[in-house]
UniProtKB/TrEMBL annotation:
SUPFAM superfamilies xref list: Ankyrin repeat, P-loop containing nucleoside triphosphate hydrolases
Residues annotated as domain DUF7708: 83-217
Name assigned to this protein: NACHT domain-containing protein
Top-level taxon of the source organism: Eukaryota
Swiss-Prot/TrEMBL ANK repeat ranges: 911-943, 945-977, 980-1012, 1016-1042
InterPro entries assigned to the protein according to its UniProt record, in alphabetical order: Ankyrin_rpt, Ankyrin_rpt-contain_sf, DUF7708, NPHP3-like_N, P-loop_NTPase
Lineage: Eukaryota, Fungi, Dikarya, Ascomycota, Pezizomycotina
One Pfam family named in its UniProt record: NPHP3_N
């Protein structure tokens, strides 16, 4: 394919935006050896998302040093933007040579693989690629603007031409002999070798940004011209215009071009809207972070397990459950499963994955989990869909809850595909979210579509919650024995890296053997313990200090966390370090180091940003958290080193427990956010915009920048001023500013303007977008200052405060639909907003709104919401009955008791079901007890297709509830309801619940009871055999089933 680019590109009619890129590709091929050229030609295929992951897995396996880090996290961002996304739009304007995008991909792969043969050089190359990836133009920026914009096309091609030139340089340096490599690194350092290319890329990015602005204006102008032309073409105007049919051919051609480009833009926008409707969660980042922790050649044992291979290769829908205790490397193991599935992917395989993040609240909801999976699994279909199909996709994908998202997914699945789903981290989700996830997984697995391959990792206790109705066919435990080889490699690699980077310093080199042996003997297969202890060893100042740690090894994670907290408290920056640990636990998304710098300087009542309060050395603050957090090297976000750190800080009793009260910290951070948004700086800017120009400028744009403030630059400025202090000390402030500017001409003017004048309001984006999520539960009487601030933000008095329940793309009708707003309050558990609106508009709780609250609010919020509904609807018994059913089904005992006390009928039916049947179906034993105590009818009949309370409990596998209902004289042999009904033993057998079957047989269940008259009617034995539960089938046969 590489030869498809002629060495002398043919002349084309009109401007060809690809000329520079074609020339660069010709030069690249000329710089290769024969072997490299063959590799290049084999690599030049059109990439997709799976290609990127498969390639980085290949790079990591092509290692030459066991101490080298996995480089996948560094490469991914650039490869996704620079190759996969670029490829997606390249063919649309490169008609003369559609292989260009594939050749760019092949060139990048060849350069990276060539550089990977030289370890020290490769580390610098990957770091450079990671830096380039931060500013690389993305499809989200240009995707819907490129059609018809030659300038933008030219800018993108020029950018990638520089990328190819940079790849040529990487190849050339890789060819040098080792001696030449050493001499070159002394005479011409790495940064100097590539500075020219990096400068050209920076300039190309600026050009693309300018072209994006032009493209946006051109798109609007073309749309207006097209609209104007279409209006001239109506029949009334046609009758008045005698020359209508004399329109020139060029004008018609131009109009056609506008239509085509407009269609392309609308199509691209629709695709983006559909994907964003399904999910805006970045599912790739947590995978990259997990893979970064992996040491090469580890976390590979799972792929050799026979159970894994059977799960992977068969077409039937099956679940593999991978369990292990905290810190044994489950997440890293799953990250490598993702990489290996992509590496061995077949054309019919579609792979999705989701890693929950404890420090990103939005990632822990069932809706976002299934939304992200749906977006990944349907992405290829969305990409090739026509405009009419996309419109239907968009309408059907809007405002879906978790269950509706699964229905949407199942509606669009293809029967000839095999769908892989890799899941990790559900342990961090709330119980109600886990319940929704469990229901969703069961629904996916019960569909008739074959080929759902689900692998899920978690702690052992999660299994019972997650697989109540669909039992995993395959189970693998991550034990100390299985990871022993990995642990030895991990210890050797991390200690080697610490020695190389001089983090670990030894007086006696033989001490390393004692360290290694102690780590091996004390780890018990827990990688997290090993990692944290190595960090403890590295901060010791002497061999005696190291020996003292080895002689008193912490007995578990809890003890090592406490040791580190003692260290944190003893450091000079203890206040800032503890605040960092606090905010990291309640922040709704990960904050960057520079956002922390501003947040740590804030206090309630502050009226402007004061840089004099900033911690001067944020690196020191991060280090003084003593290894409990880490800074992501790619985007400088701060994270706990493991989710168990958060659990220890906020849920375990220790001497600092009072400092880690979630509710208090949530409200404190919200108060800081609202204080920030109310700064006088922003009020002044708003006034200027209101009084001045016609240009549409949002105030927050004027104070923000993607460039991180550098204390090094500030220090250089200060040193320069200090050297001229004799001449400057008597000047006025204005004259000092003028003189200072002249002295700073060796620094970028833009950096000075941004850093010294605009103040770089780093925390603004977080404050305006997340303030509302920190104040979900406010008491107007107890939190008067907070309520005042909160009310001003909701009212719009604090203009910068974002109100997400009023999204920008809503129509007027949608914006005025209070039920729509209430759904947002319910989805996010925002009791304070509902309370605020009911105080301002007492009639807001209409019947329709009230029913929605009782049906849809989350379990953790149901008590407060139900109490408010009871207060507002005293005497409305239909509403109380409705509420009783749904609160019983969701298991909220406090709400059940409140509704019964308010007069709800314990035997009232909602959707032809009783509250007891709803509670039994979900296994809520405490609620079942309360309902029985209030005289609930244990034998209330089932409706068509329904279940009695006992049948529902048996089907769900809820043994405790089954035993309690039997004790309450439930009819064990109640007949199956019409349609898809079943007896209790049929229900338990069909779902494989052997323990429940045993209990029912002991209570004299009719083992041969007839099935219902519907298409799903089966005896208990037939149900067990058809579902593949041989152990249950054998037990039934021993009981006499035929």
């Amino acid at each position: 394919m590489a030869s498809a680019i002629s060495r002398r590109p043919k002349r084309v009619r009109g401007p060809d935006p690809t000329i520079s890129l074609k020339q660069a590709l010709v030069q690249f091929e000329g710089a290769l050896t024969e072997d490299q050229r063959r590799q290049y030609q084999a690599s030049a295929t059109k990439p997709d998302a799976a290609s990127v992951i498969a390639f980085v897995a290949e790079v990591d396996s092509n290692k030459s040093s066991t101490t080298r880090r996995c480089v996948a996290p560094r490469l991914c961002t650039f490869l996704e933007a620079a190759t996969q996304q670029f490829s997606a739009i390249m063919d649309t304007f490169v008609s003369s040579n559609p292989q260009i995008a594939a050749l760019v991909w092949g060139g990048v792969k060849t350069a990276i693989l060539t550089a990977s043969n030289i370890a020290s050089y490769f580390d610098k190359v990957t770091n450079m690629i990671m830096t380039i990836g931060r500013s690389c133009p993305t499809y989200q920026q240009f995707g819907h603007l490129y059609p018809g914009c030659v300038g933008l096309q030219l800018g993108l091609c020029d950018y990638y031409a520089v990328i190819v030139q940079l790849c040529i340089k990487i190849i050339e340096i890789s060819k040098r002999t080792p001696v030449t490599q050493i001499l070159s690194s002394i005479l011409n350092p790495f940064e100097a070798e590539f500075k020219k290319f990096l400068d050209q890329l920076d300039q190309a990015v600026e050009d693309i940004r300018l072209q994006l602005s032009f493209a946006s204006k051109k798109a609007n102008a073309d749309a207006q011209k097209l609209l104007k032309r279409e209006s001239r073409s109506n029949s009334a105007f046609r009758r008045l215009t005698s020359r209508f049919h004399e329109e020139s051919r060029s004008e018609y051609t131009k109009a056609q071009e506008w239509r085509i480009n407009n269609l392309k833009r609308e199509t691209a926008e629709l695709k983006s809207k559909i994907r964003d409707s399904l999910s805006t969660i970045n599912h790739i980042k947590p995978w990259r972070q997990a893979l970064r922790q992996r040491v090469p050649s580890t976390a590979e044992w799972l792929q050799q397990e026979s159970l894994f291979l059977r799960w992977k290769d068969r077409w039937n829908t099956e679940i593999l459950w991978c369990s292990g205790t905290i810190g044994v490397g489950k997440t890293v193991l799953m990250s490598n499963v993702v990489a290996q599935l992509h590496a061995s992917r077949k054309p019919s395989d579609i792979i999705s994955y989701y890693f929950c993040c404890a420090d990103y609240a939005a990632s822990l909801t069932a809706r976002n989990i299934f939304g992200s999976l749906t977006r990944q699994l349907l992405d290829a279909q969305i990409e090739v869909a026509g405009k009419d199909s996309l419109r239907r996709f968009y309408e059907d994908s809007r405002d879906l809850n978790a269950a509706e998202t699964i229905d949407f997914l199942l509606t669009h699945l293809k029967g000839d595909k095999r769908y892989y789903i890799v899941l990790d981290g559900f342990d961090e989700c709330d119980g109600s979210e886990i319940q929704q996830v469990a229901q969703g997984i069961a629904k996916l697995c019960s569909t008739r579509t074959k080929g759902f391959k689900i692998i899920c990792a978690g702690r052992p206790e999660l299994e019972r919650q997650l697989f109540r109705t669909f039992v995993p066919k395959y189970k693998i435990s991550v034990t100390e024995g299985k990871v022993e080889s990995d642990m030895d490699q991990y210890i050797a690699a991390i200690l080697g890296r610490c020695l190389e980077e001089e983090q670990l310093k030894l007086g006696d080199p033989k001490l390393i053997m004692k360290i290694s042996n102690a780590l091996h003997d004390g780890s018990n297969g827990v990688f997290l313990w090993t990692r944290l202890l190595i960090e403890e060893l590295c901060v010791q100042g002497s061999d005696n200090g190291i020996l003292a740690v080895l002689n008193h090894l912490p007995r578990g994670l809890s003890e090592i966390f406490d040791r580190k907290l003692h260290r944190v408290q003893s450091e000079a920056t203890a206040k800032d370090a503890i605040a960092t640990l606090q905010f990291c636990g309640v922040a709704k998304r990960s904050l960057t180091v520079m956002e922390y710098q501003e947040a740590l300087s804030l206090s309630p009542g502050q009226t402007s940003l004061d840089s004099r309060k900033f911690p001067n050395d944020m690196n020191k603050v991060m280090l003084n958290c003593c290894g409990l957090i880490f800074v992501d090297e790619e985007d400088s976000t701060v994270h706990y080193v493991h989710h168990s750190v958060k659990q220890h800080l906020f849920n375990i009793n220790h001497w600092l427990s009072e400092e880690f009260d979630t509710r208090k910290l949530d409200q404190h951070l919200s108060l800081l956010c609202m204080t920030y948004l109310d700064f006088n700086t922003f009020k002044c800017q708003i006034s200027k915009v209101a009084e001045g120009s016609n240009t549409l400028i949002t105030p927050f744009q004027l104070g923000t920048t993607p460039i991180y403030r550098s204390r090094n630059d500030t220090g250089r400025m200060a040193m320069k001023l200090l050297s001229h202090r004799q001449h400057l000390q008597h000047l006025s402030a204005r004259e000092l500013e003028r003189k200072s500017r002249k002295l700073f001409d060796d620094l970028e003017a833009s950096r000075v303007d941004i850093d010294l004048q605009n103040g770089n309001f780093q925390f603004l984006d977080y404050a305006r977008s997340c303030w509302v999520y920190h104040v979900t539960d406010l008491d107007p009487e107890l939190d008067k200052q907070m309520w005042k601030f909160f009310s001003r933000c909701v009212d719009g008095d604090i203009t910068l405060a974002h109100r997400p329940w009023e999204s920008a793309d809503q129509t007027d009708d949608e914006r005025n639909d209070i039920l729509r707003a209430v759904r947002w309050f319910l989805d996010h558990g925002h009791f304070a907003l509902l309370l605020y609106h009911t105080k301002r508009q007492p009639n807001i709780l209409t019947g329709k709104v009230t029913y929605e609250i009782l049906k849809s609010c989350r379990i953790q919020d149901r008590g407060r919401f139900t109490k408010l509904v009871i207060q507002q609807n005293e005497g409305y018994f239909d509403i109380l009955h409705y509420g009783l059913f749904y609160t019983s089904r969701e298991g909220c005992i406090a709400s059940v008791e409140a509704l019964l006390q308010a007069g709800a009928n314990v035997n009232a039916r909602v959707d032809n079901r009783t509250a007891l049947q709803g509670a039994a179906e979900r296994g809520h034993l405490e609620v079942v007890e309360q309902l029985l105590k209030t005289k609930a009818n244990v034998n209330a009949a089932a409706s068509v297709d329904g279940r009695t309370a006992l049948q529902a409990a048996a089907e769900g596998g809820h043994l405790g509830v089954v035993e309690r209902l039997l004790a309450a004289k439930a009819n064990i042999n109640a007949p199956a309801a019409k349609g898809e009904g079943c007896t209790a033993i049929q229900a338990a057998a069909g779902r494989g619940h052997l323990d429940v079957v045993e209990q029912l047989l002991e209570a004299k269940a009719d083992v041969d009871a007839a099935g219902s008259n519907g298409p799903m009617g089966r005896t208990a034995l037939e149900a067990a055999v058809e579902s593949g539960y041989l152990d249950v089938a054998n037990r039934l046969r021993r009981a006499g089933a035929v």
